[in-house]
From TrEMBL:
Keywords: Oxidoreductase. Gene3D superfamilies: 3.40.50.1970, Dehydroquinate synthase-like - alpha domain. PROSITE patterns: ADH_IRON_1. This is Butanol dehydrogenase. Residues 9-178 form the Alcohol dehydrogenase iron-type/glycerol dehydrogenase GldA domain. Pfam families: ADH_Fe_C, Fe-ADH. GO terms for cellular component: cytosol. CDD domains: BDH.
Amino acid sequence: MNDFIFQSPTRFVFGRGYADKIGEEVAALGAKRVLLVYGGGSVVRTGLLARVTSSLEAAGVAHVELLGVRPNPEVGLVRRGIELARAEKVDLVLAVGGGSVIDCSKAIAFGTPYQGDVWDFFSKKASIGACLPVACVLTIPAAGSEASASCVISNDELNLKRGVNGDVFRPRVAILDPEVTFTLPQYQTAAGAVDIICHICERFFSAAGPVPVTDNIACGIIRAVIDAANTVAEKPDDYDARATIMWSGTLAHNDLCGCGRASAPEKRAGGWESHGLEHEISAHRPEVTHGAGLAVILPAWMRYVWRADRERFLAFAQGVFDVEPVDETDEATEDAITYAIDELQRFFVGLGMPRTLADLGLAPEEVDGWLETLRQNKGDRFGELRPLTMDDARAIYLSAF
């Protein structure tokens, strides 16, 4: 087990009806006037926005609203949010939504005190310092942004999608009410389950070797998500299954599943190859749901690199799918590993996720554009378990069609 630093300072308020508690929670943080950030349709249609604003009013917390956050949030809206936050002198940013809304809120929070352009942080021209506090009411379990030190924003003008990390913008409080997810469309639920599993896999497939405590936590959460997602596909209002997915999404990305697996205490475990590859797709095509892209890219990456660390992939096969080679031959090992990868993809497809990039309406002719921005973001070589060149990335992309 490698040295590590684990920090999860977010206060989690988890349970039925707890969306109505957000007012008292942000008031307890000292907030007097908040910027309320959301996407639009669903939180209005379901009545959640009205519940949140009523809770704020009852707690004596004033608010101004910024709506219109899209999937794969764009820096233009972040800039508008920063202008509004400054003009209205807000003292907290409150996200009501999924990972896109929370990431947009995080960027507004650390962009507001900064005198330059917020994209400076994503282009590594500036380091994050001061930051408004962030709180959230989670509506889509997927990104884990409610507890993570990560923020990912797109820039349509540059065809770039980039992330920054920093504990300073982890949400101070996160309301997790599984009942608000009952009305999620199956496609969003499925894409969320894929993203959750991928967050764990990015850490599991690092070069640290076995870390029994962390590895068992990781595999256990994946198994729980698989069971719960299959249940929800049949029974959308199954509270326990929804609760399992929601809490799993938090644990998948608050770094618990990477403890002892990172190359240095201050680093995040894993090479994040699948996320790096998928981010280029949804940067160029913002209409592609991140989890749907990962449903194709993760298995393609696994098939391409598993020979670099057979033991790690065997641990995954055994820990998640109870699969072991029938003997010690190379052929039996390959059969066990490829079965586990195929089984993971069968699970994704069974939830309604795409099997190929063509299923997402993409074409091989787009690969060159993805590689161009991938090189800008990652350099000529990136990853950890098996570092990837641009030729490797091209091969993985093409294998996914």
